[in-house]
Specification:
- The structure is a single chain.
- The protein is α/β, with parallel strands linked by helices and 406 residues long.
- It has 2 domains: 3-180 and 297-399, Zn peptidases (Aminopeptidase), CATH 3.40.630; 182-294, Alpha-Beta Plaits, CATH 3.30.70.
- The chain has helices at residues 3-42, 51-63, 108-129, 148-154, 207-222, 260-281, 301-313, 330-333, 358-363, 367-389, 391-399; strands at 67-70, 79-85, 89-94, 133-139, 163-170, 182-191, 230-237, 248-257, 284-294, 339-345.
- It has a 6-stranded mixed β-sheet with strand order 1-2-4-3-5-10, covered by helices on one side.
- α1 runs antiparallel to α3, α1 packs antiparallel against α10 (367-389) and α7 crosses α10.
- The two termini are 39 Å apart.
């Protein structure tokens, strides 16, 4: 038997036993990963405040031989943990911020668990197989509010990364990375003049009326918007007492669309509606664009195919789903390098549970969810290993990247 044939035969045998290798490796780390995920779940931290979550992940990876950079790129709750050397360079992204009033109603504690699991599995494969390349687990805070992946991109965090892999818990079927809406966030404040609402209302300029008219204008605008777009807002300041004409009132709004140019045109229309509300009430409007705008997500077809095939092999009953009107700062990642943001079901047979709810937060600590997290970590590690070892797969992934050279 020639040396080449021996190598090919050995490679086939290894790939046939890869799931067994990953299973044995994950078992070594399983309890600590699960305990860490539950700890993050039981101590939810809002966007930008994820000190415990960032620390325990960094500590875990450091104890597994990763070189860890804390306060990564100047962000207090970001980190990057790297093992191996050279290229290709695989990055698994972790999220871990919670939602106000409901804790981990988006299940980001499980995203952290997937990234940690995939990271230690691929590191072990690099070491055991003598494969050239690097693996990084990157902690990316504040997805729900600020979108710190964009800060990290601007700081050069992806400049030598080849692919990014991430997976998010879902109340729907396990699925591929779907195209997602871009989003722009706005804080609007109207300034008027206070007066006694009964004795001298004619002396006042009602800022709350301006907010109400802003909502009315948006409601009228919706009729002319494509079905693929979304506009939604909440009043954050409506005055202090019924007998005082509000001299200040405010609202937060989100605008979403799948096309970035159309999203920018929506911004202009929204600003005009706000100024119209101010004109009708004699108030002034300050419209601030909240940092950051999230770009519409563009997943990689070849990485998606690999994810769905493996999800089937792991018994996760995957389904190809349509694009989503939800938004994530991961969208910006897909413009930098080939990337996927797959979804894994954590609600099982339970009906009526929706993401961003207390019920979903409860599911995010269930034994079923932890099992799904483990399978997903193995899937991402297999994709990473295939990218490291298959030139043909690397070429296909590169060819499926729509934004030029990488």
């Amino acid at each position: 038997m020639s040396n080449r044939l021996r190598k090919e035969t050995a490679g086939k045998i290894f790939m046939e036993t890869l799931k067994e290798v990953l299973g044995a490796c994950y078992k070594v780390h399983a309890k600590e990963i699960e305990d860490l995920v539950i700890q993050i779940h039981d101590h939810p931290e809002l966007s930008g405040e994820e000190e415990l979550a960032a620390r325990v992940q960094a500590d875990f990876l450091e104890s597994r031989g990763f070189e860890v950079k804390r306060n990564y790129k100047g962000l207090n709750t970001a980190f990057a943990a790297t093992a191996g050397e050279g290229r290709p360079h695989i990055c698994f992204m972790s999220e871990y911020d919670a939602l106000p009033g409901m804790g981990h109603g988006c299940g980001h504690n499980l995203i952290a668990g997937v990234a940690l699991g995939a990271g230690v599995l691929l590191k072990q494969l690099l070491s055991d197989q003598g494969v050239k390349g690097r693996v990084t687990v990157m902690g990316t805070p504040a997805e729900e509010k600020r979108g710190c992946k964009i800060d990290l991109i601007e700081a050069g965090a992806l400049k030598d990364v080849d692919i990014v892999l991430m997976a998010h818990p879902s109340n729907r079927a396990t699925s591929q990375s779907v195209e997602e809406s871009g989003i722009m966030q706005f804080a609007v404040r109207f300034s008027g003049k206070s007066a006694h609402a009964a004795a001298a209302p004619e002396d006042g300029l009602n800022a709350l009326d301006a907010v109400r008219l802003l909502f009315c204008g948006v409601d009228a605008w919706r009729q002319q918007l494509p079905e693929t777009c979304r506009v939604h807002g909440v009043i954050t300041d409506g005055g202090v007492a019924p007998n005082i004409i509000p001299d200040s009132a405010a609202a937060d709004f989100y605008l979403r669309a799948f096309d970035m140019d159309f999203l920018l045109s929506m911004k202009t229309r929204f600003e005009n509606i706000a100024q119209g509300a101010a004109l009708m009430t004699g108030t002034t409007a300050l419209v601030e664009t909240v940092k950051h705008t999230y770009k519409p997500g563009k997943p990689n077809r070849e990485l998606n195919q690999a994810f769905m095939k493996l999800a089937g092999e792991y018994g996760m009953a995957p389904e190809w789903l349509e694009r989503s009107r939800a938004s994530s700062d991961f969208g910006d990642v897909t413009y930098e390098v080939p990337a996927i943001h797959g979804f894994f079901n954590i609600t099982g047979q339970a009906k009526g549970i929706t993401i961003h709810s207390k019920e979903f937060a409860g599911c995010a600590a269930s034994p079923f969810a932890l099992g799904q997290m483990e399978k997903t970590a193995k899937i991402l590690s297999e994709i990473g290993y295939r990218y490291l070892t298959s030139e043909d797969f690397r070429k296909k992934v590169k060819d499926a990247f729509p934004f030029g050279s990488i």
